[in-house]
Design goal:
elongated, single chain, 4-stranded parallel sheet, Rossmann fold, alpha/beta, 284 residues, 12 strands
Length: 284
């Protein structure tokens, strides 16, 4: 299945590129202003409305930033960090602030105090709803048709992956991060694993013990980065030698934040599915 998946990944990437080219998406704005006032529903279920084309968008979400640039809004989009978010949002010219749906409550409160600009929560739960997420962001910024083309390509890639996974058994997966802590299925990384054909063996975030891990019978060990275990560190514990994931050297690194919701999502999930379903690595 590894070769089939890699071919699917390349095909999905080509499909996205074709969709973007066919829509006339380019680096400069292409809208005529007829899409305003805009109306869109964000990941929090809130309706966000803009009266006119946004001249300054502050984005604190990697996926949203990528989509906004694909929509020809590079010049209008300011990429913020945790340290600069409130300051950038407070700029009087800011017309829209885009934040992850999972933004920490304390940072959200600080941001709400700092700006009067509309706030757009960006995210997809489950990841199969990513096409809708992309489409709605496009509607918010007056780029509905362009966003719909990207969303269509993403949907096609996700459908291809789903068809492949339908022929395989789900893989029992443990998500482990810093401090030898297990992470549940509702986390961003958990959503990625589920979309890639993995079944999370824990239901909530919890500390792990060596004896507890042995009883979980996990076939793939997803090491959340930064801070997750390595194959060498796991092999240093004799108690873990019988765990299928460790015995078969199926240790898969994955960002703690999961994957951005952008045009590259299907390819990223397909590569993760490849790793979760890979054949055991022969010893020696």
């Amino acid at each position: 299945m590894r070769v089939v998946r890699r071919i699917g990944l390349l095909a999905g990437t080509a499909l996205v590129a074709i969709a973007l080219a066919g829509c006339g998406v380019k680096s400069e704005p292409t809208g005529t202003g007829t899409a305003f006032p805009s109306h869109a529903v964000d990941a929090a279920g809130q309706t966000v409305t803009l009266a006119s084309p946004p001249l300054r968008i502050v984005s604190f979400d990697a996926g949203a930033t990528a989509i906004l640039k694909d929509l020809g809004l590079s010049a209008e989009t300011v990429t913020a960090t945790a340290a600069s978010l409130a300051r950038e949002a407070a700029d009087p010219g800011t017309a829209l602030v885009v934040v992850p749906a999972t933004l920490e409550p304390a940072l959200l409160q600080t941001l709400t105090t700092a700006t009067t600009a509309p706030m757009y929560h960006y995210g997809a739960n489950p990841l199969t709803s990513a096409p809708t997420t992309i489409t709605q962001l496009g509607l918010a910024v007056g780029k509905g048709p362009e966003a719909a083309a990207i969303a269509k390509a993403v949907a096609a890639g996700l459908d291809t992956l789903a068809a492949q996974l339908a022929t395989e058994q789900p893989v029992r997966v443990l998500l482990e991060g810093r401090g030898f802590t297990a992470h549940g299925p509702s986390t961003p990384a958990g959503l990625a694993v589920a979309a890639a054909g993995g079944t999370n063996v824990v239901t909530v975030d919890q500390p792990l013990s060596l004896t507890g891990v042995v009883g979980l019978d996990v076939s793939a060990w997803v090491s959340l980065q930064p801070g997750g275990s390595t194959l060498a560190s796991l092999q240093s514990y004799p108690d873990l030698a019988a765990v299928p994931a460790v015995k078969d050297s199926r240790i898969v690194p994955l960002p703690m934040a999961g994957f951005p919701i952008d045009a590259a999502l299907p390819g990223a999930l397909q590569a993760l599915a490849d790793d979760l379903h890979a054949a055991p690595v022969a010893a020696g």
